[in-house]
Q: What sequence folds into this?
């Protein structure tokens, strides 16, 4: 799993049933680029779906992500804790997704298989879900289960000497309620558990300490900086709750979308995400959607920028047994905001083009994590969808 895995931006698969069309093709290209020579991710997504006469929808997705740039390793120069080290990485991720959806009366059943691979990570995932419409389709209940069996692959640049397994199970439960012709609310709950190798195989952590060196003429104290691979717990539980609402304002010809998401895990991280989006229509061809998202999280209980003066001695093991420590800035207490807009245009029936520009800014909330760790990025994407 590369250091930049969090940069991967997932896009939802097409939903043919919303369009009433038998086939749909969608492409999206996206560039995520951090400032100051940090990470750059170029992504290409191609989706195709076909609905058969007997009510089953087949979906296929191909995606390629090219990653390059610099990211902090979590270590600093020897005896200089103000000079933090960065690592240059380059990798490519290829993703294939197969989905099947079938409607039987008020029920909708779906199955999905996803496979992705990169130099240092291999993933296979299965997902099943079922939903049912009630009360003249004003209420929709849904539940789902997914299981991923992944493998972290050892390379000459990782801290592991052999391939490691990682398994994840996720459960979800949701309800969508139509409150009127212009208002709908959604509530979703989720639980997940991951087991196996959960550390980042690239990240290390520094510790400056004094040790005794034995020589033929006696023992002498030597002060130096030592680097150890990070060591996270080998199991984690996570909980998610999300509430959202959408309302269409007829006098303005626009819709307001708002949501709140709560996240917590057994590593003591608690996160809150607030998002608001306005979709303004201009006739039948144009729409403009500005949006704003705010995220705040607490830090993990085993996060330290460095082990110096923590009372914890680095041990060099990566077995997921204590003591635990990580210098991954993504585990620190932090804030992040995202803002931007999407412009959509439909030059003809069943064809639409959209352009999206967004700004991402992350900042720390503790006094110990260097601000240079937290990236600022621009994201540009362009896509089209053709229904036929």
A:
């Amino acid at each position: 799993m590369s250091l930049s895995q969090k940069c991967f931006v997932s896009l939802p698969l097409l939903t043919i049933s919303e369009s009433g069309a038998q086939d749909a093709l969608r492409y999206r290209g996206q560039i995520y680029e951090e400032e100051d020579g940090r990470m750059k991710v170029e992504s290409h997504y191609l989706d195709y779906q076909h609905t058969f006469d007997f009510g089953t929808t087949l979906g296929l997705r191909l995606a390629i992500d090219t990653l390059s740039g610099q990211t902090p390793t979590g270590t600093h120069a020897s005896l200089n804790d103000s000079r933090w080290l960065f690592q240059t990485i380059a990798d490519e991720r290829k993703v294939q997704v197969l989905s099947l959806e079938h409607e039987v009366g008020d029920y909708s059943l779906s199955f999905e298989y996803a496979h992705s691979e990169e130099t240092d990570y291999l993933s296979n995932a299965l997902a099943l879900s079922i939903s049912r419409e009630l009360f003249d389709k004003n209420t929709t209940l849904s539940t789902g289960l997914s299981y991923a069996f992944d493998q972290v692959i050892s390379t000459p640049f990782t801290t592991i000497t052999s391939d490691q397994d990682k398994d994840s199970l996720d459960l979800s439960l949701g309800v969508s309620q139509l409150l009127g012709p212009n208002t709908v609310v959604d509530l979703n709950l989720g639980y997940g558990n991951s087991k196996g190798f959960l550390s980042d195989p690239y990240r290390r952590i520094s510790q400056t300490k004094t040790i005794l060196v034995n020589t033929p003429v006696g023992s002498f104290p030597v002060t130096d900086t030592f680097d150890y691979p990070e060591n996270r717990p080998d199991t984690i539980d996570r909980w998610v709750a999300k509430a959202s609402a959408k309302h269409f304002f007829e006098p303005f010809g626009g819709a307001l979308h708002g949501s709140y998401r709560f996240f917590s895990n057994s590593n003591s991280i608690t996160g809150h995400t607030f998002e608001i989006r306005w979709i303004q229509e201009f006739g039948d061809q144009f729409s403009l959607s500005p949006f704003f998202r705010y995220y705040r999280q607490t830090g993990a209980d085993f996060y330290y920028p460095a082990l110096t003066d923590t009372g914890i001695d680095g041990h060099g093991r990566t077995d997921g047994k204590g003591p635990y420590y990580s210098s991954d800035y993504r585990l620190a207490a932090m804030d992040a905001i995202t803002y931007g807009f999407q412009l959509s245009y439909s030059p003809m029936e069943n064809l639409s083009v959209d352009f999206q520009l967004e700004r991402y800014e992350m900042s720390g909330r503790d006094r110990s994590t260097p601000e240079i760790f937290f990236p600022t990025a621009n994201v540009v994407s362009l896509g089209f969808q053709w229904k036929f």
About this structure: Confidence is low (pLDDT under 50) at residues 1-20.
